[in-house]
Structure formats: structure tokens, C-alpha cells
Design goal:
Blueprint: E1 2-5, H1 15-22, H2 28-36, E2 40-42, E3 45-47, E4 58-61, H3 65-68, H4 84-87, E5 88-93, E6 97-102, H5 118-125, E7 132-133, E8 142-148, H6 151-162, E9 166-175, E10 184-187, E11 193-203, E12 209-212, E13 220-232, E14 235-242, H7 249-256, H8 270-273, E15 289-296, E16 312-314
């Protein structure tokens, strides 16, 4: 275990950055793992998230001494980090929110297997040091995500989701020619015509997800709406609207129906994915799934995000294959 008192240059940084400044030999992956296991303490209190530290606070890092004492070659040139514009672009912003288009392959928050992540990049490379994620999307899903600039903005934004005042839509490519009429026909809030499919999701303790047509003990109901946008050689493009937002819902549910997301090696089959090529003739690197639209309902006057009432934000998906 090592400890240090936060100095002026470290004040205002997130705890992982401050620890890296104090102990250059420590790797970010080890620090994030320490957070996950609550092996970092600030003023004696265990923490599990990458929070901001301030001058004169005491930080204790409970890691093996060998990690602190590893030799560091300061003369070696480290690879340049990608700029925020490589990782995301700002689609829209208000005084309190950012709506970002995230690239595929970038995690939205820290984890044991990821060093770089969206929220830390935003905090580090913008003036919004207290930025927080309002919701999440998978690392390998690209597209729209909302970030609150401060805690107050986060609370009001989360309230919109709890009151079903934000509709999330995705576009994706699924293997095969999916019928346009699976499920029950519905008219959506914006009068779009879709079909709604209902199933049950089982999530095991290990994190595996299974879809059932009949409910079993512990299953959670899931609902997804979809419409076909086009048919192509070997795959279909569809637009989906999430009614429930369970773990890997779109990927697991459409794979269960027999139409897995193109490029998804978890719920789909890699052998099938290898039969498709990207625009350069190489392998498909990511699942072809993008968060493409956010539609805001009628927001109450007492919510700070009321200026977004009735607005819709959309992007075009950056598929790896030609349509």
C-alpha cells in the first residue's frame, strides 16, 4: 500500500489520473481494477468510481509494492492519444447537456479491461470536469449518447428516462432477410409504423443473456419495436425502438429470432460473419449496430431540459459494409 496527499497540480483531477501523476509506474488498468475492488481510499473511505480529488485529501492505493516500483522508461515516446474528435463528435448541446456521437469500440465508462473511455475523455479534454453519463450504450455500439455537464443536469435528465420522455432508436444490419411483420403492428409516438416483439430475458450470474418465448423464474419481460428499411445481399437493415432497455436486448432478441446482428460474434456466429467483407475487402470489426435517434417527449416546465421538449436528434450509421 502507498498513500499520498493531493497537491495543487493534482487537485481537480480524477483519482486515477492523480494516482498516475504520483506513481508513473502504475498502469491505468491496475488502477481501474483497484477501483473495481474498492482498493483505493480517499480520506479513509473506500471508493469504486473514478471521482475527482482535491488538494489536501489523502489517497491510499492498496496494490502490491512491485507495481509501484516497476521501472519506467521516460525517454521512450508513448503513442499519441486520440483526440476527443476521433472518439466522438458533438451533435448538439444545451447549457446543461451534451448529445454525442460515439465511435464504435470505445467504452462509455471505465472497467477492468478498458483504459480509455468516453466519460473520462470528455472530462479530461473539455471544461466539463464533472460530466456524467445519463445512460449507456455498449462499447461496440456506435452513435448517440447523452452526457450531463453536472450533477443537477444529470438528475433532471435521468428523470426524463424514468418518465419515458426519451425514445431511443437504433439502426442495424441483421443477417438474412427478416420478415417485416414479426409481432404486433403498432403506431409509434411520431406515427411511425412498426411491429412490436415481446419476449423474456434471462441474465445469469455470469452475465450471459438468454431469450425465452415463455416466461421462466427470474426472467424479465422485454419489448422491442422494429421496421425493415431495406434488403441487401445476405442481410437486412432495420430500425429498432427500445420499449424496455435490458442488457444486450436488441442483439439477443433478434439472434433468438434467427436474425443476428451482422458482425456480432457473441449472439451471432463468427463463421457466418466471415462470409461478409467491409468496404476495403477486410473482415468486419464491429457489430453493425448504431444508436441513431433520440426523440424527446413533452418535458415538464419544472425540468431544466424543457428546451428539448418535442425535439429529435438523428445521425446516419457508419456501417462497415456497402448498402
Amino acid at each position: 500500500m502507498r498513500s499520498f496527499i493531493v497537491n495543487g497540480s493534482q487537485s481537480g483531477e480524477h483519482v486515477v489520473k492523480a494516482c498516475s501523476m504520483q506513481y508513473p509506474a502504475l498502469k491505468n488498468a491496475d488502477l481501474y481494477r483497484a477501483l473495481k475492488h474498492k482498493d483505493i481510499r480517499i480520506d479513509g473511505k473506500k471508493v469504486s468510481s473514478d471521482i475527482t480529488v482535491y488538494e489536501d485529501q489523502e489517497v491510499q492505493v492498496w496494490l502490491p509494492d512491485s507495481l509501484f516500483d516497476a521501472k519506467v522508461d521516460f525517454s521512450a515516446k508513448s503513442p499519441a492519444k486520440k483526440s476527443s474528435m476521433d472518439d466522438y463528435r458533438v451533435v448538439a448541446q444545451t447549457d446543461s447537456l451534451l448529445i454525442l456521437n460515439k465511435r464504435q469500440g470505445l467504452a462509455v465508462h471505465s472497467g477492468a479491461t478498458t483504459e480509455e473511455n468516453l466519460i473520462d475523455i470528455v472530462r479530461r479534454q473539455s471544461k466539463f470536469r464533472d460530466a456524467e453519463l445519463v445512460h449507456r450504450i455498449d462499447m461496440n455500439t456506435g452513435g448517440l449518447i447523452i452526457v450531463a455537464k453536472n450533477k443537477a443536469a444529470l438528475e433532471d435528465a435521468v428523470a426524463l428516462f424514468k418518465k419515458d420522455l426519451v425514445i431511443k432508436r437504433y439502426r442495424c444490419l441483421v443477417v438474412g432477410r427478416i420478415p417485416a411483420d414479426i409481432g404486433e403492428p403498432v403506431v409509434c409516438t411520431d406515427e411511425a409504423l412498426m411491429c412490436e416483439i415481446n419476449s423474456y430475458l434471462e441474465k445469469t450470474k455470469s452475465g450471459s443473456v438468454y431469450i425465452h418465448d415463455e416466461r421462466k423464474d427470474g426472467d424479465l419481460p422485454i419489448s422491442t419495436r422494429y421496421r425493415v428499411l431495406g434488403y441487401y445481399h445476405g442481410f437486412s437493415e432495420i430500425e429498432c425502438e427500445l420499449i424496455t432497455g435490458r442488457t444486450h436486448q436488441i442483439r439477443a432478441q433478434f439472434a433468438h429470432l434467427g436474425y443476428p446482428i451482422l458482425g456480432d460474434g457473441n449472439y451471432g456466429r463468427n463463421q457466418v460473419n466471415l462470409g461478409f467483407r467491409n468496404k476495403e475487402g477486410g473482415k468486419i470489426r464491429h457489430q453493425q449496430l448504431w444508436s441513431t435517434s433520440l426523440i424527446f417527449g413533452k418535458i415538464p416546465a419544472d425540468n431544466m431540459h424543457r428546451e428539448l421538449s418535442g425535439r429529435k436528434f438523428s445521425i446516419e450509421p457508419s456501417y462497415e459494409v456497402e448498402l
